[in-house]
Amino acid sequence: METLTEIIGAINGIVWGPMMLVLILGVGLFLMLGLRLMPILKLGTGFKLLWQGRSSKSGEENSGEISPFQALMTALSATIGTGNIAGVATAVFMGGPGALFWMWCTALVGMATKFSEAVLAVKYREVDENGNHYGGPMYYIKNGLGSKWAWLGTTFAIFGAIAGFGIGNTVQSNSVADVLHSNFGLPPLITGLVLMGLVGAVLIGGIRRIGAVASTLVPLMAIAYLFAGLVVLGINADKIPDALSLVFTHAFTPTAATGGFAGAAVWAAIRFGVARGVFSNEAGLGSAPIAHAAARTKDPVRQGMIAMLGTFLDTIIVCSITGLVIITTGVWTSGVTGAALTSAAFAEALPGVGNYLVAISLAIFAFTTILGWSFYGERCIVFLMGPRAVKPYRFLWIVAVPVGATVSLDFIWLVADTLNAMMALPNLIALALLSPVVFKLVREYFNREKEAEQAKTVTD
After folding, report:
1. What is d(CA 369, CA 195) in angstroms, rounded to the nearest whole number?
2. pLDDT for 216-263, tens place per residue?
3. Per DSSP, what are the bridge partners of residue 258?
4. Which end of the chain is more exposed for a tag (fewer CB within 10 A), N or C?
């Protein structure tokens, strides 16, 4: 195990090196500028479309399996998970408070990335003989870039099918088992077996069942967690200015060792802020467009504006609450990391209640993440091997849940981090190459909107 950890650690150091961070932030910034800041300027429009997207418009009933709202909730079910609770804590523990600033930067440019992913996913998706819609990076690479780039789509699908077992399965069950054991004394194996049964029961129903469960659980738990976080920040309101000062100061200057915190260089803040930001909101990873490709919509740009909300909600809202709770309570210097650090922060402000709230939130978030990522993995395996491979893949997915609950957390995080980067590479290359298509579709969409508005004004 030590040798394997060293090998994967060496690979991780390469794939998460300076070039990867430049690629993630660079592609996102390029897309944001090419879109003329549209994802930020049209944030309100995105929320309006999300509300309208709870049901399909007339004529769009057969253009996908789930509503636009359910598509975002399915994507959020896969993103709002351990990254928002354990991932933020790990970023602060490894990179200091400044890591939160770099998570924000990743999210802001990531809105453009997520928008572009969804636009391309809807435009280049395929429909099988049963009317099921398939899309995502492997399809927009295949159908958008042509046969000479087919290997890139295959590469993404391979890494996606494997990476799901890390980021979307074993990391989630491991974190749940860890936090339930520390708070309730529940044996990890029991947690793993219960999770396995629940996941298996939902997966039988496919994407429609996943969408229905996600659209119910995700909003409820996200609101409950945010409310608790805001209560903690209200209690520590006088410490928020100092916390923000730490975030902005240590984004550009080293963090000195203090208490149980070992200290961190600026590079650590950038590296862990960006890496955990991507782990949390998955912008650039290529996972979310797989869900958005199943949406009942005929307009790629409309779905893109709904999709970009995922990054905003996940990182700018949820991760910010977690990070500020950890910093304002002062527990970031305790030497504790992962979900235990977030749990300690909530317990500090809400004694006897906070740690249990985090444990329950993490368990539900992780459960929905396992569901969302099972769909991503299945779509990747269908692209590689056809529909017949879904059942064996689903069986392996369910079996992996209790396995993840009982192995080393550090090793699982390392593997997940490494596979994330290897997924992101082919997707980011494709986004850069297909950016002219995105820009063209956006221009045409807003020109139509402008003409429709002018026609309405003339009529009135």
Report:
1. 12
2. 777 888 888 889 999 999 999 999 999 999 999 999 998 888 878 888
3. 261
4. C
What is the reported pLDDT for 49? Answer: 87
C-alpha pair distances (Å), 178 with each of 77, 287, 341, 370: 20, 26, 12, 16
Cα 290 to Cα 75, 282, 287, 366, 433: the distances in Å are 8, 12, 6, 19, 19
Which of 155-159, 257-261, 295-299, 332-336 has maximum average pLDDT?
A: 155-159
Q: Are 359 and 350 in contact (CB under 8 A)?
A: no
Tokens of 396: 């392996």
Phi and psi dihedrals of 250, rounded to 5?
Answer: -85, 5
Tokens of 162: 């494997």
In this prediction, residue 427 carries a pLDDT of 95
Alpha carbon 153 to its chain's center: 20
Sequence-distant (≥ 6) Cβ neighbours of residue 158 within 8 angstroms:
380, 384
pLDDT tens-digit profile of 193-221? 999 998 988 887 776 777 777 777 778 88
pLDDT reported for residue 409: 65
Segment 374-388 shows an average pLDDT of: 92
Q: Is the pLDDT at 151 greater than 90, yes or no?
A: yes
